[in-house]
Write a structure and sequence with these properties.
4 copies of one chain form a homotetramer. Chain A is α+β, with helices and mostly antiparallel strands. The first copy, chain A, contains 2 helices and 9 strands; from the N terminus they run βαββββββββα. Chains A and B meet through helix 1 and strand 4 of A and helix 1 and strand 4 of B.
């Protein structure tokens, strides 16, 4: 589990006066990237030959529990809910003080990007998987 | 079922060269609003006393099946998958020509907005529900 | 001059209840692209060798004259204010019915994109320039 | 002058692989708000009677000097270029290390927002103006 703090910006809001439901998804992605950076992992891990790993998304979802507003300071708890051979599912818990705001997920697939070639699904490399385990939910000290 | 056509704009794309996964959600919402307008229904239906109905979202999701790119012309089929006493779930099928691009949903709750009062969940008014039935999946002529 | 019609979407608004000032810029860009398509010109004109033209922006501005709101139907008049050897400045006039909403501009530079090479500024090709003249302000029939 | 640091997020980029030109405007606004918070000033200063000040934008511009990319750490120097009786113009200098990335501005007008009333332009209150002077360019110690 990795904790990100983020203040709601004005552009995240809409004419209903609250954070737009779609604005939670870029926040999840930024929290994912920050969590990976904290592990020394780049989202675009180079793999030789001018190529790199890339993680296209296959699914995302969000449940909205309470409204968030301009300038709210949100906490986003990032965890890995499931890590398979080629894919990973991140979970995100948004809260403000003790109030649960939203709960979302993103599932991404590990792919090989080589210049001039189509994307190819690939196994998550062992050393990378090992580092990502630090975010696994069942890895949180109890 | 209601069909919307929409061309991918440059701002919808990201540095991976494809439509960003989060950009599908505002497209869903616009398709929802366009479907409601086609029924003569306003998303902010006035209800007297200076108030109006409003539809905060409680859940959204999207499955990504194939990449969409700048200037692609997408078709978005909007339907109502479920309409309860106070809530409605819309389904959205994105395609380009014969290729399925994405499949998503938004669940919204019918609320009463009155000036200076907190939002209050309310039953979907009968006449409104009747019109929305036109979008119900089991209402599509077979 | 080329005229684009566009309905304000909910995601374009902010908690002040109006279209966010930054949301006018993607609208300008989409109108630019639609104007170019109307001339049979691609924004990413292929130029052989796997390369294409690309138009990075060097300046943009917008003056806000009146607020626009959710579901407003806007007209955007696109024109070319100035076309130089390597750069072009587009003008955009936003209005709703008879009300002037905003007036903006984007200046872009014609560059050569070749795979694996840095961008290189280049002259706007003659045939392309000839077609773009159709949008020039001094070309509007009087 | 007030300095903000901000990492480029993936959603800020576009299919040209760089930060989209429109994405600089929400960054300017967030930097403005952060600068005001640093002075103990709220963007929505309460003024009694349930009302508050609000700052609709009348103009914005940006000059683009060099491309910014995903995960770049940007510095944004916020200053007040001009403060009039009812309006203020902020300047923003974006840089990455020693490289100048962009230079922009936002001009906003001080207005009174009272529930149920149209916006009314008003003089910037003296105490507020006094605090904002801390950001004035000619106030930077030399």
């Amino acid at each position: 589990m990795f904790l990100v703090h983020r203040r709601v910006e004005f552009r995240d809001t809409d004419a209903a006066g609250i954070v737009h439901f779609s604005a939670f998804f870029p926040m999840m992605e930024s929290a994912e990237h920050e969590a990976l950076r904290s592990l020394g992992v780049s989202v675009m891990q180079p793999i030789g030959g001018g190529g790199h790993l890339t993680w296209p998304r296959v699914a995302s979802h969000c449940d909205y529990l309470a409204a968030a507003r301009f300038e709210d300071m949100l906490s986003i708890a990032v965890s890995i809910q499931k890590i398979g051979v080629t894919s990973v599912t991140y979970g995100f818990d948004f809260s403000r003080a003790e109030i649960k705001i939203a709960r979302g997920s993103i599932t991404a697939v590990c792919c090989l990007w080589m210049p001039g070639e189509p994307l190819r699904k690939t196994e998550i490399p062992g050393p990378l998987r090992a580092r990502m385990q630090a975010l696994a939910v069942d890895n949180t000290p109890s």
